[in-house]
Amino acid sequence: MAEEKVSLQQLDEDWNRVLAVVAHPDDLEFGTASALARWTGQGKEVTELLVTRGEAGIDSVHPAEAGPLRTEEQLAAARVVGASGVDFLDFPDGTLEYGLDLRRALARGIRAHRPDVVVSINFREAFDGADFYNHADHRVLGPALLDAVRDAANRWVFPELADEGLAPWQGVRFAAFSGSPRSTHYTPFTEKELETGIASLDAHEVYMRALEDFDHPAMLRGGAERAGERCGTDYAVLFEVIGV
């Protein structure tokens, strides 16, 4: 236990703007939202960028209906944590592919929002402590996002973005991925911020109801407590930080 505490560093918070980029509605709310609430409470600007609308995520609801429902739930969840806005890239849910179209769209979002930090969720084969294979969209998005940070900084990659009025942005300091089995850093948060994170997942009412008897408050609280134990605080979320 002592070795784990030494190995994890508190995430640098000497910055002002974060772009939280995930594949689906609810991705941020499964653990990262309490950190977002902490940061908006500090006066930082948090913007969310959703690659899909999660239309393939509810077995009992047709995608044509699920997409708009999940969009509204994500907008509600973002309001709970104080995010300043939510953008959607409208890639198809469940079949995300690494490629130039995805990199270009992500680079466009980075240039438009000009973040100091980019946050996402785990793209490794499994989540920390889990025994199931990670979602294909998550595994695709991580590498594409890291490449897009570099693309956004290079005026000669996707030069058409400059024609749209989006100048290169070289200001991203690092990317942080929650839930990774290779976590290097942590962000602590309070009981109030934990409750805010739980409330943000509550906002995904239709999606959570479809999971049937899933006790998400207990899951979020337990995960935050276990992470806190690893770094010597009450509650925390762990991140794999990758320099860009």
Throw out a few tags for this protein.
disordered N terminus; eight-stranded mixed β-sheet; alpha/beta; 17% strand; 244 residues
Per-chain topology:
Elements: H1 2-7, E1 9-10, E2 17-22, H2 33-41, E3 45-50, H3 63-81, E4 85-88, H4 100-113, E5 117-121, H5 136-153, H6 160-163, E6 174-178, E7 185-189, H7 191-202, H8 205-210, H9 216-231, E8 235-243
Parallel strand pairs: 1-7, 2-3, 2-5, 3-4, 5-6
Antiparallel strand pairs: 6-8, 7-8
Helix pairs in contact: 2-7, 3-7, 4-5, 7-9
Give the mean pLDDT.
94
Number of helices: 9
- Broad shape: globular
Strand-residue proportion: 15-25%
Number of strands: 8
Low-confidence stretches: 1-6
What's the short version?
The chain has helices at 2-7, 33-41, 63-81, 100-113, 136-153, 160-163, 191-202, 205-210, 216-231; strands spanning 9-10, 17-22, 45-50, 85-88, 117-121, 174-178, 185-189, 235-243.
Structural description of this entry:
The protein is of the alpha/beta class and 244 residues long. Helices cover 43% and strands 17% of the residues. It has 9 helices and 8 strands. The chain has helices at 2-7, 33-41, 63-81, 100-113, 136-153, 160-163, 191-202, 205-210, 216-231; strands at 9-10, 17-22, 45-50, 85-88, 117-121, 174-178, 185-189, 235-243. The protein has an 8-stranded mixed sheet, sandwiched between helices. α3 links the parallel β3 (45-50) and β4 (85-88). α4 (100-113) crosses α5 (136-153) and α7 (191-202) runs antiparallel to α9 (216-231). The longest helix has 19 residues, at 63-81. The model is unreliable at 1-6 (pLDDT under 50).
